[in-house]
Write a structure and sequence with these properties.
By secondary structure, the chain is α+β, with helices and mostly antiparallel strands.
């Protein structure tokens, strides 16, 4: 058979020699030699079997592997409870619904979990004949009563086309040798009924894109292996690159150009942004699942006649470097890019980061050389720095074996990430210093505020209203029931109107404002970020800036206006690791009792033990509250939430702008992880001064080196810097050198013009499209921002 030309059901797949010759994989990810004689169909099936079980050569004397085998057995013991193929209403007593499609997927997942233990040597279930028969009867029950050509789908298409199909495929690979010809035919026909082709047109008439496309391709690929169908594998290979001209975006190509042309917006962008469901930032949700599924699919096809040869495959390196690394904070994925998954109890505790690590471990063999070394250094760092959740104690068997080999390599760990990274294609920013990380979440006319579908994420109203999430050495802060218990009306960093909207109110909404984004100075942890806030469902309007200057973040707000309602800006809302953590107000300890509430006048500085400091160069009045908050996961997720109450202690600090404010403002310096003494010192001599806080421009200057950072909302001037319209600018003097970084956060302007009133400057280097000429005793910088989508442009000048 020539690859891509088709085959019959019984034609042996071609290219067996390529399978062994073209790829060098770690033993945990390599084909099982015992199956090689069965032809390539058997070898590919064995390869997928190894991805599920870790392979036949597990060293059960290794403590880590023995523990993982034991976990596999325990998971099956839990999954098998209640399994009864004699029931009429459901295979499991708690999964009987014929209106909730996730009951179908969960039933298949439990069968796959049990089958995994049956297939893994060393588990109590391994090779058990009675369990084998129970599993086969369970598959028959599902095919007879729930899944296949004779059954009408209901509820969520994902469960039928992807979730159930993936789990059923896995169970079928694990049980392949005992399925029998008729049952195998029935299984593969059922999967093909819902997912016939990787270029799948969904029930809503939209072709599967982004993560859904890779999931669908994986379903088709494993089904093709089970059916010995080379043409199916060829379609999968081609679907990843869209060479069949289906009209969908290529999964591997960056979406920068195709999004505008086709209007889908879904997929990875060259700045590391990932969007799913049109305009939702989703690196930590669908993005991680795309990377995970693609890594498995690439592993399956590697070295075969159907291996992926698209040159865009090289983009995956940037996905990892730009789209995942900056969004991981010591084992946690920043919640601002996790979509509705933050409302699922199963996704807390650094689970999402585990998926990313597993995917990158699988990718290492396919990217030899410098990329493999860099990925190895990343994996080592990610595993080592997450002291909250031991990756090696929770990952699957195949990933464990491969990760152990990565850790044993001579390549050193990367070390802590220090970077200021912005993602203008999804209105997010991340700031990393050795002792903390900070995530800023905005939205605009281009990006949705939050997602709440399938009765999930019901109270995420303010996730993009300037939310600032601080990641410190309290690695479990956003785990351990943070999202159901935090006050959703006072998320840290946000400016809001007091009050509680209806569940899921205003979700999937873009702003009427275009200004969201900023500028990052390359090679530094210096950045200017901002957003024009136009709140959903009210007249609240305001301008918000965050100037991230190494260990200090200058927070500036102006023009805060509303026709009615009480406006607040939340300085902090912290789940306390220590319920009695000290709060110092101007050096005096506030009461540490739960239920404490107070008006705090003339505040010059605050310090929260275990969190850091806050300096108010212009003294302000704040409100403070300690409370034990009780909630259930079902409060925010009717689909996956539980009814068990959980209670967590919180400290909230906010600035009250009053009722129906007009042009209210704020200014403070946040010093994450700073000591109380350092905070006190900075309050006496603030390291950053506010230069401007009007509705035309926000600007600050760092006293140590004269760095000027400015967000221009319209034409205006900030000291020596003038802009002709909306722009974000950094001007950094270093000896005789002056570096200028700028962007158009509205992503609408064709050019940005700056006048810098400094004499004797000449150009050393400039990005394409950036020019500078003498003007009015200073220098005029003109930058072509057409099609830059908010990206930073740079110019280096020198003094004569």
């Amino acid at each position: 058979m020539t690859p891509g030309t088709g085959t019959t059901r019984r034609t042996v797949l071609a290219g067996a020699a390529a399978l062994g010759a073209a790829v060098a994989l770690p033993p945990a990810l390599a084909p099982r030699a015992a199956h090689a004689a069965a032809g390539e169909a058997g070898a590919l099936r064995a390869r997928w079997h190894t991805l599920l079980t870790g392979g036949p050569g597990l060293d059960l004397t290794d403590e880590r592997i023995a523990a993982a085998v034991a976990r596999t057995g325990r998971a099956a013991t839990t999954a098998v409870k209640g399994l009864d193929p004699s029931r009429a209403d459901g295979l499991f007593p708690d999964l009987t619904s014929t209106t909730l499609s996730n009951h179908v997927t969960t039933s298949f997942k439990r069968l796959a979990t049990i089958a995994t233990a049956w297939a893994v040597p060393g588990t109590p279930q391994h090779g058990d004949a009675a369990l084998r028969d129970l599993l086969l009867a369970g598959l028959d029950w599902m095919l007879t009563h729930r899944y296949g050509p004779g059954h009408t789908r209901f509820d969520n298409d994902w469960d039928w086309e992807i979730g159930s199909a993936l789990a059923l495929n896995d169970a079928s690979v694990l049980l392949y040798d005992v399925l029998g010809t008729d049952r195998l035919e029935r299984i593969t026909s059922a999967v093909r009924h819902y997912t016939p082709d990787p270029n799948l047109w969904r029930a809503d008439r939209q072709i599967a894109t982004g993560a859904n496309r890779v999931w669908v391709s994986t379903v088709v690929a494993v089904n093709a292996v089970l059916r010995d169908d080379g043409a199916g594998l060829a379609r999968v290979r081609d679907a990843l690159s869209d060479v069949e001209g289906s009209g969908a975006n290529s999964v591997l190509a960056f979406n920068d150009a195709s999004a505008a042309a086709e209007g889908t917006g879904e997929g990875f962008y060259s700045d590391g942004s990932f969007l799913q469901h049109y305009k939702h930032p989703y690196n930590g949700g669908y993005g991680k699942e795309l990377l995970n599924s693609l890594s498995r699919l690439l592993n399956l096809l590697a070295g075969t006649a159907w291996r992926v040869t698209d040159p865009d495959l090289d983009n995956v390196r940037l996905w990892v470097d730009e789209g995942f690394d900056p969004l991981l904070a010591r084992g946690d994925v920043m919640a601002s890019v996790c979509g509705r998954e933050i409302a699922r109890p199963s996704k807390q505790g650094h689970v999402s980061a585990q998926t990313v690590i597993e995917a990158v471990v699988r990718l290492i063999p396919g990217f030899p050389g410098e990329t493999a070394d860099r990925f190895t250094a990343l994996v080592k760092q990610w595993i080592a720095e997450d002291t909250y959740r031991d990756f090696l104690a929770v990952t699957d068997l195949a990933s464990l074996v491969a990760a152990q080999q990565v850790i044993a390599s001579p390549v050193g760990a990367r070390g802590p990430l220090t970077v200021h990274k912005q993602h203008p294609r999804m209105d997010k920013a991340a700031h990393h210093r050795p002792s903390f990380a900070l995530g800023i979440s905005a939205y605009s006319s281009r990006i949705y505020n939050y997602e709440s579908i399938q009765n999930e994420n019901l109270r995420a109203w303010h996730l993009s209203d300037g939310m600032v999430l601080l990641y410190t050495d309290d690695l479990g802060h956003y785990s351990e029931d943070y999202w159901p218990t935090v006050d959703p009306t006072r998320l840290p960093g946000t400016t809001v109107l007091a009050g509680r909207p209806a569940d899921a109110a205003g979700q999937r909404t873009t702003s009427t404002a275009d200004w969201a984004g900023g500028t990052a100075l390359p090679g530094t942890t210096l950045g200017a970020y901002g957003m024009e806030l136009r709140a959903y469902g009210s007249s609240l309007h305001g301008l918000k800036s965050w100037f991230c200057l190494d260990d200090v973040i200058a927070c500036v707000g102006s023009g805060i206006t509303a026709d009615a309602g009480e406006a607040e800006t939340v300085v902090e809302n912290r789940k306390l690791r220590d319920p009695g953590a000290a709060l110092l107000v101007n050096g005096t300890a506030a009461p540490a009792d739960a239920g404490w509430s107070a008006r705090l006048d003339d505040v010059r500085w605050l310090h929260v033990a275990g969190t850091g400091g806050y300096v108010f160069p212009d003294p302000v009045t704040l409100r403070g509250l300690r409370e034990d908050r009780t909630a259930t996961w079902r409060d925010i997720n009717l689909k996956y939430g539980t009814d068990t109450p959980v209670t967590r202690p919180y400290l909230t600090l906010w600035q009250d702008h009053g009722t129906a404010p007009r042009d209210a403002d704020y200014f403070w310096l946040q010093a994450p992880a700073a000591s109380a003494e350092r905070t006190r010192q900075w309050s006496a001599a603030p390291p950053v001064e506010r230069v401007a806080g009007s509705t035309a421009v926000h600007a600050v200057r760092r006293r140590a080196d004269g760095l000027l950072a400015a967000n221009f909302w319209s034409a205006g001037t900030a000291r020596e810097l003038t802009a002709d319209g909306p722009a974000s600018v950094l001007v950094r003097p270093e000896g005789r050198t002056v570096t200028v970084a700028l962007s158009d956060p509205t992503q609408l302007r064709s050019s940005v013009v700056l006048d810098l009133a400094l004499r004797g400057l000449s150009v050393v280097s400039a990005d394409p499209g950036v020019t500078a000429v003498p003007a009015g005793g200073g220098i005029r910088v003109t930058a072509d921002t057409t099609g830059r989508h908010g990206a930073t442009l740079n110019l280096t000048l020198k003094r004569s």
